Amino acid sequence: MSIVDLFQDKTVFSFEVFPPQRNASIETIYDTLYDLRDLRPDFISVTYGAGGGKNNVSTVPIAEHINDICHVPSVVHFPCVNQSKKDVLEKIEELKAAGIENILALRGDIPEGERNQGDFRYASDLIAFLREHGDFNISAACYPEGHLESPDKVEDIRNLKNKVDAGVNHLISQLFFENKHFYIFQERCALAGINVPIEAGIMPVINKRQVQKMASLCGVNVPKKFQRILEKYEDNPVAMRDAGIAYAVDQIVDLVTHGVDGVHLYTMNNSYIARKIYKATHSLFESTNKGAKKASSSA
Ligand code: FAD
């Protein structure tokens, strides 16, 4: 199933998982998916080599497992950094053979101190290539606070518009801790004529180290309100976890009531946290009917 159709009449709630780290067994992610199977998010995406790990091999089998165990559509992340056209064509054939319909097309991070040696300079090049060679539903990444490499937000939106025009059906955002960044970004997209559904990426934070890593890797701001939580509970893991869950729930409630197209939960493969957040918010998604909302707001 093409996931873009989901956005027509509901606010989408999706999950992201990643393949286990190199030394861990693939069974660990299958256990996580098994724990999540009764929740029925609208789709689950699987990262590919994120963070520079060489954990690429299992992405496609995990996506197949998502369909089989959780009975929801899967989305395969597909970074093209350092890939030749031949590599990408082989990958396309692998995805077709596995029956994968949904791809999150990415450039990927260029390892520090290296240059991209592949045939695709930007995600937009990969997207145009995928459009030529397959009939996939194509999603792409976007950055409410701007991508770290962009000189400014105007340039970032211009590049995003080019990327969407290359053939993107749907966008998923980088995580953010202050919803105002996402709302301003939505306005910029609307002004630029970017009209595809945009899902808001939410990451529940459960320790200080994780936030510091994310802030430096992704360039996201950590608001004072959140810093106070980190400082107060950094030595109390249970309180920190509960505060992280509550903070994510609060963000989601605000996003859904502002009428976002969808929320993408970075689960960090933590089924306990994903379950808590899902249970606290899923009725909000069930009761949003975009068709009705649009009709009433135009009345
Ligand atoms: P692009 O869209 O190509 O943008 C990269 C930079 O180039 C931006 O600064 C952009 O403004 C600029 N740019 C684009 N086009 C042009 C142009 N024509 N001229 C000049 N500048 C241009 N990484 C992984 O390795 N694996 C994953 O599974 C993964 N999943 C992710 C999921 C989400 C939801 C997000 C938000 C990110 C994910 N990433 C993943 C990280 C992502 O690959 C990095 O953020 C990477 O640095 C950029 O990838 P992109 O596809 O956004 O690149």
From TrEMBL:
What CDD domains does the record point to? Answer: MTHFR
Q: Which cofactor does it need?
A: FAD
Which EC class is this protein assigned? oxidoreductase
- Give the pathway listed in the UniProt entry for this protein: One-carbon metabolism; tetrahydrofolate interconversion; Amino-acid biosynthesis; L-methionine biosynthesis via de novo pathway
Which reactions does this protein catalyse? (6S)-5-methyl-5,6,7,8-tetrahydrofolate + NAD(+) = (6R)-5,10-methylene-5,6,7,8-tetrahydrofolate + NADH + H(+)
Keyword Oxidoreductase attached: yes
Its cellular-component GO annotations read: cytosol
Which GO molecular function entries does the Swiss-Prot or TrEMBL record give? FAD binding; methylenetetrahydrofolate reductase (NADH) activity
The cross-references to SUPFAM superfamilies, in alphabetical order and at most eight, read: FAD-linked oxidoreductase (SSF51730)
Pfam families linked to this entry: MTHFR
> Does the keyword section mention Amino-acid biosynthesis?
yes
Which domain of life does the protein's organism represent?
Bacteria
One GO biological process term: methionine biosynthetic process
UniProt-listed Enzyme Commission number(s): 1.5.1.54
UniProt xrefs under InterPro entries: FAD-linked_oxidoreductase-like, Mehydrof_redctse-like, MTHF_reductase_bac
What UniProt keywords apply to this chain's record, in alphabetical order?
A: Amino-acid biosynthesis, FAD, Flavoprotein, Methionine biosynthesis, NAD, Oxidoreductase
Q: Belongs to which family? A: Belongs to the methylenetetrahydrofolate reductase family.
Q: Which PANTHER family match?
A: METHYLENETETRAHYDROFOLATE REDUCTASE, METHYLENETETRAHYDROFOLATE REDUCTASE (NADPH)
What is this protein identified as?
Answer: Methylenetetrahydrofolate reductase
Upper classification of the source organism reads: Bacteria, Bacillati, Bacillota, Clostridia, Lachnospirales
